[in-house]
């Protein structure tokens, strides 16, 4: 058996920030989950639909692992990434740091994890691994998934080798934090402005505030878009409120990040951004509830109301990001 000593196995709400928290705490840097999410410029929005999809997808954050790269850049962390097509080399990339007393982050497909409560393929799932024996791997996942958990080595190997959307070639990573990694005001402001710029200037209409506006136009038609509205609409709502988002499609996390920043930085732009995201988070929860109710009742008026709220959300989040973009380092 190999087990990293001194691991804080605290599970958070979101998988990637949970794994980052484990690795950074072991490296001597303890940041809140909202701070990890915000410093990683994690907030975003995407509306995605195609003929090949059974139902549209709504996403509220940047693509998997981009948050980790952003956070490493923001804090000057040393991020070492291993990728390989060889299962043998992939295991070496994990076992070597653990044998040396360091936890490892893994991106994998959650479908194959023994403990996972919902058996769906998701190749963008991230966990921290801190030990193994002859049969099992010892991981830290989100609090809803159990925090400190274990899965069979065979299941872990399948999860890492899976191919499909968002999967990687057995990706693993370690983090080293310099002594000066504590976030400064300049680093915080740069992370906020980076996030705001991407949100305000999306390259396509499916992203950012334009994506929310596009969603507002399509949501009222969702009863006709689905072959099984009683299944698809409540599932979409659950993904917005649960599924590692922290509630309100990650808006709760960003609201709390801005609140934490407002305690550190005296700025009217920051306070206004926080106020607007407090409003936005509450409205996203209302949208999710309306979508779920529409699926259960078959009543279109709930989706029409959800569309109206989404139109308002596009404006609120655009105004919030415009305020935040005015922050000065």
TrEMBL record:
Coiled coil: none
Protein name (database record): BtrH N-terminal domain-containing protein
InterPro entries listed in its UniProt record: BtrH_N, DUF4872
A Pfam family per the record: BtrH_N
Domain of life where this protein originates: Bacteria
Domain DUF4872: 155-324
All copies of domain Butirosin biosynthesis protein H N-terminal, residue ranges: 14-142
Organism: Streptomyces hirsutus
């Amino acid at each position: 058996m190999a087990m990293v000593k001194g691991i804080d196995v605290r599970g958070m709400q979101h998988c990637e920030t949970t794994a980052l928290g484990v690795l950074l705490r072991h490296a001597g840097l303890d940041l809140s989950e909202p701070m990890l999410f915000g410093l990683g410029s994690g907030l975003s929005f995407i509306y995605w639909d195609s003929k090949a999809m059974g139902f549209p997808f709504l996403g509220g954050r940047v693509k998997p692992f981009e948050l980790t790269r952003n956070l490493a850049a923001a804090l000057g962390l040393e991020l070492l990434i291993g990728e390989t097509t060889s299962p043998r080399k992939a295991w070496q990339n994990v076992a070597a740091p653990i044998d040396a007393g360091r936890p490892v982050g893994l991106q994998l497909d959650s479908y194959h994890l023994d403990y996972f409560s919902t058996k769906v393929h998701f190749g963008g799932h991230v966990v921290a691994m801190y030990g193994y024996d002859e049969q099992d791997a010892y991981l830290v996942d989100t609090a809803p998934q159990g925090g400190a958990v274990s899965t069979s080595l065979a299941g872990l190997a399948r999860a890492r080798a899976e191919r499909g959307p968002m999967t990687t070639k057995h990706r693993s990573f370690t983090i080293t934090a310099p002594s000066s990694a504590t976030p400064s005001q300049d680093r915080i402001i740069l992370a906020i402005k980076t996030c705001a710029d991407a949100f305000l200037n999306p390259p396509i209409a499916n992203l950012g505030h334009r994506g929310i506006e596009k969603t507002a136009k399509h949501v009222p038609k969702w009863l006709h878009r689905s072959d099984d509205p009683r299944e698809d609409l409540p599932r979409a709502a659950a993904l917005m409120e649960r599924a590692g988002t922290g509630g309100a499609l990650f808006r709760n996390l960003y609201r709390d990040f801005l609140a934490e920043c407002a305690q550190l930085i005296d700025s009217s732009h920051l306070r206004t951004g926080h106020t607007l995201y407090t409003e936005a988070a509450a409205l996203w929860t209302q949208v999710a509830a309306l979508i779920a109710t529409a699926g259960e009742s078959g009543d279109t008026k709930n989706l029409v109301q959800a569309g109206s709220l989404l139109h308002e959300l596009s404006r609120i989040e655009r105004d919030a990001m415009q305020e935040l973009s005015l922050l000065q380092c």
